[in-house]
């Protein structure tokens, strides 16, 4: 599957960026405005899964009918979060293979595979922001 294509074609899909604020300051979330969507940003901490879940559920009005694509910094947390979301009532949850910065992550493949409006840029390139698609794997119910 391809996260960008799914975000584009599935009305009930949403991108959840779980990177911390410091990381987001240097590499912003993908801009999904041209898809009529926005990235939902909720930092994940393994030390506070309950608090994280409460915040995430507060950002989605209908979790049981929402397909979530989880983006991390390529630290392995996105797979944990995808599993956590499925166990806690989300329709489907997938993690983006390679995260934001991994070998085949969003940043690495954007120039070749994604349209410029969804490119991610580092802080020094923010003025000309663009974003692209990523490969995903995930859990399906």
TrEMBL record:
Q: Which Pfam families match?
A: Rhodanese (PF00581)
Q: Which residues form the Rhodanese domain?
A: 37-109
Q: Which domain of life is it from?
A: Eukaryota
Keyword Transit peptide included in the entry's annotation? yes
Q: Which CDD domains match?
A: RHOD (cd00158)
Q: Does the keyword Membrane apply?
A: yes
What protein does this entry describe?
Rhodanese-like domain superfamily
């Amino acid at each position: 599957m391809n996260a960008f294509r799914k975000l584009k074609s599935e009305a009930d899909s949403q991108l959840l960026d779980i990177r911390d604020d410091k990381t987001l300051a240097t590499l912003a979330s993908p801009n999904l405005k041209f898809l009529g969507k926005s990235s939902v940003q909720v930092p994940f901490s393994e030390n506070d899964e309950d608090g994280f879940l409460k915040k995430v559920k507060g950002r989605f009005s209908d979790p049981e009918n929402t397909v979530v694509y989880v983006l991390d910094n390529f630290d392995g947390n996105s797979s944990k979060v995808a599993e956590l979301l499925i166990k806690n009532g989300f329709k489907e949850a997938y993690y983006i293979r390679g995260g934001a910065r991994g070998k085949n992550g969003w940043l690495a493949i954007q120039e070749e595979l994604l349209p410029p409006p969804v490119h991610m840029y580092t802080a020094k390139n923010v003025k000309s922001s663009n974003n692209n698609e990523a490969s995903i794997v995930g859990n399906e119910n």
